[in-house]
Amino acid sequence: MPARTLFDKVWAAHEVVAETPDTPAVLYVDLHLVHEVTTPQAFSTLRSLGLRVRRPDRTLATMDHSTPTHTEQVFGSVPIKVDAAARQVRQLEQNAAEFGIELFGMRDARRGIVHIISPELGCTQPGMTIVCGDSHTSTHGAFGALAFGIGTTEVGHVFATQALLQRKPKSFAVNIEGQLSPGVSAKDLILSIIGKIGVSGGTGHVLEYRGSTVRSLSMEERMTVCNMSIEAGARAGMIGPDEVTFEYLKDKPRAPRGKAWDVAVARWRTLATDAGARFDASVDIDAATIEPMITYGTNPGMVLPIGSAIPDKTGDAVFDKAMHYMGFHGGEGMLGKPVNVVFIGSCTNGRLEDLQAAAQILKGRKVAPGVHLLIVPGSQQIKQEAEAAGLADIFKAAGADWRESGCSMCLGMNGDTVAAGQYSISTSNRNFEGRQGKGARTLLVSPLTAAASAVTGRISDPRELL
Amino acid sequence: MQPIKRIASKTVVIASSDIDTDQIIPARFLTTTTKEGLGKQLFADWRYQSDGSQRAEFVLNRPEARGAEILVAGRNFGCGSSREHAPWALLDFGFRAVVSTAIADIFRGNSLKNGLLPIVVDEQTSQWLLDHPSAQVDIDLESMRLTLPTGTSVAFPIEPFARHCLLNGLDELGYLRAKLNDIERFEAAQVLSS
What is the residue extent of each domain of chain B? Predict the structure, then answer.
């Protein structure tokens, strides 16, 4: 057999029917993750066709996008403030009950952002195909799974058949060598990659992050990297499973146990890309040269090292429009610009290591006057762990707002928004116009940079506070 | 779904590149539980002032946009989130095709499943279309050609199976359900091998 990539192997193992020039492949889906926003219309379709969810045992639901993060709205008697969101939450409860799907609902201790809870439960495993009606499904690729976002029609297809019609994307090797410098994180790495290949550089491709730098990353850091693959336009991002992967998964509630664990690991060990396997495209990244990164425009590809000046592309329509929206000018430096809101959380940077990084800076310090620091754990489990480890106390002592888990201010559809014109330093994944609220100005950074900027009230290099 | 063979219409031009799905329909409108009526929220933040009144200068608010079924946009249209609300909103507004030099993967797939044609053309054709708003354009799905009012005609690619479904008004779910025997066989083999 010719040398194959990780992606080739996972794809081939899930081809129910191979593709032909006239027809796409029928691709089997091992795990279907479900949330409240992109599924109501798919359940309606099932109902109108008289169909059931074919494999409820391969389907897992939670609520995260439109759920509030205020404790009194999640656990107390205060109703969810946004009516439509409340309706969506109720509808998922009804749909899950009607179609026999396991749901981690509002008050469940296992609830959280869909891309955070599946790994922490051990549902996400190497070699799987995983889909969800959410583009950041690419996160699960960190385990060597083929995981990608789908639309609501496809959610209906998976409900009804546990399979999808797909054309095989091309492969793209992202080779990363060298050691990240102190104060430089996985977020800076992926922002730098997107800056290099562009927001459509990965279109039609599945990325595989490879090389010594990737091997040295923790699972949480690998998830941060794979999470933003979609911001480079890629269909998915993957990392070959290794000892770090197995160590993370061992003893997770839904990981295989006993003899089944040994069998699974033996199988997972065969997934890595074979020596000599060919990719359709590739790029080389030198990790040692990467610095803390920050976006300056209105897409994640408009990004630069935090100490640099905005490139002057005045006259370019896209650049001018972005600068007008952000209130910036070509040639300006980023350091020292004022900050209104700081958001630490999301499926990109809402895991425990992210909170630990923020705490490292915030410990014994105060949030600058006039700055709102919102820290939202990615799951209820992470919330509990952060509280047990004393991180929440550090955040509260610093003056931060510490909430229940959810997507929160990443996309501003749950009551957590940034006001028009305000500058938000955010650890989330998209700095699109209006993403965090109409007129909000988002700057994407790592948790370290976010925490440092919260303390100084200005865009700051975290290395000066470490 | 109604069969789609040909779209002949004037165009509307939004020249920006990298138009993301948060622009096409902002997240705060995603709390809906139906597909209908999203056209009024299409490009909401570009179309309306904060008091809800229309921005007269935005192209979708201008008289020439009325009745146009083809949207011409800059490179990498539809990037960002997987929300199918984006093609739903475009269709509800009245668009039946989007023309660009590059269209993001998930948006393209979602569009094909709803009868919104994602048409990718070369730089030269795109530039001509961007430079000539309200041009009368003909998109023939059968021959996979886009024809400009100048008479210039270019081929465009489209996934053959999606094209077959669109031309014949077929739903992909019907095809997929016809493969359930294969899916069951696959599952049985998967259990044996794990």
Answer: 6-193
Mean pLDDT of A242-267: 98
C-beta atoms of B79 and A200 within 8 A = yes
Claim to verify: residue A189 and residue A137 sit in the same structural domain: no
CATH code of the domain covering residue A447: 3.30.499.10
Q: Nearest-CA residue of chain A relative to B185?
A: A16
Specify the CATH number for B6-193; select among 3.90.1210.10, 3.20.19.10, 2.120.10.30, 3.40.1620.10.
Answer: 3.20.19.10
DSSP string for A144-177: T-EEEE--HHHHHHHHHHSEEEEPPPEEEEEEEE
Chain A residue numbers touching B15 (CB-CB < 8 A): 317
User: A253 in a domain, yes or no?
Assistant: no
Q: Across chain B, what does the average pLDDT equal? A: 96
pLDDT band at A239 (very low <50, low <70, confident <90, very high): very high
Residues A181 and A152 in one domain: no
Would A302 be classed as within a structural domain?
yes
For position A422, what pLDDT does the model report?
98
Domain count, chain A: 3
Same domain membership, residue A141 and residue A273: no
Average pLDDT over residues B110-134: 98
Distances in Å between the Cα of A337 and the Cα atoms of A203, A326, A332, A457, B133 are 33, 12, 10, 9, 40
B192 pLDDT higher than 80: no
Q: Is B36 on the interface with A (CB under 8 A)?
A: no
pLDDT higher than threshold 90 for residue A76: no
Residues A36 and A131 in one domain: yes
Which pLDDT band, with edges at 50, 70 and 90, does A1 fall under? confident
Res A32 pLDDT > 70: yes
Task: Please indicate, yes or no, whether residues A108 and A215 belong to a single structural domain of this protein.
Answer: no
pLDDT tens for each residue of A94-112: 999 999 999 999 999 999 9
Phi then psi for residue A226, to 5 deg, are -65, -35
* Mutant choice from B47, B82, B168 vs A, greatest count of A C-beta within 10 A: B82
A286-314: pLDDT as tens digits: 999 999 999 999 999 999 999 999 999 99
Average pLDDT over every residue of B96-116? 98
Q: Which of A432, A433, A435, A442 is best to mutate for the B interface (most B CBs within 10 A)?
A: A432
List the single residue in A21, A49, A199 with the smallest CB-CB distance to B79. Answer: A199
Phi, psi of A161 (to 5 degrees): -130, -15
A282 and A152 belong to one structural domain? no
**Residue A246 resides in a domain:** no
Instruction: Measure B170 CA to nearest chain A CA, in Å.
Output: 14
C-beta of residue A443 within 8 angstroms of C-beta of residue A435: no
Q: How far is CA A122 from CA A30, A253, B64, in A?
A: 14, 6, 55
- Range of the structural domain that residue A58 is part of: 6-166
The rounded mean pLDDT for chain A is 97
- For testing contact with chain A, the best of B47, B106, B165, B166 (most A CBs within 10 A): B106
Asked if the C-beta of B31 comes within 8 angstroms of chain A's C-beta atoms, the answer is: yes
Question: What is the distance between the alpha carbons of residues A215 and A230, in angstroms, rounded to a whole number?
Answer: 21
Asked if B179 and A41 come within 8 Å (Cβ–Cβ), the reply is no
A434/B45 CB distance under 8 A: yes
Region of poorest pLDDT, from A78-87, A134-143, A236-245:
A78-87
Q: Does A60 share its domain with A154?
A: yes
> What pLDDT is attached to residue B194?
61
Co-location of A340 and A429 in the same domain: yes
* Residue A457: how many other CB atoms lie within 10 Å: 16
Does residue A252 sit within a domain? no
List the Cα angle A97/A103/A108 in 5-degree steps: 125
Contacts of B188 (CB under 8 A, 6+ apart): none
Give the CB-side neighbour count of residue A159, counting CA atoms within 13 A.
Answer: 30
Residue A77: pLDDT band (50, 70, 90) is: confident
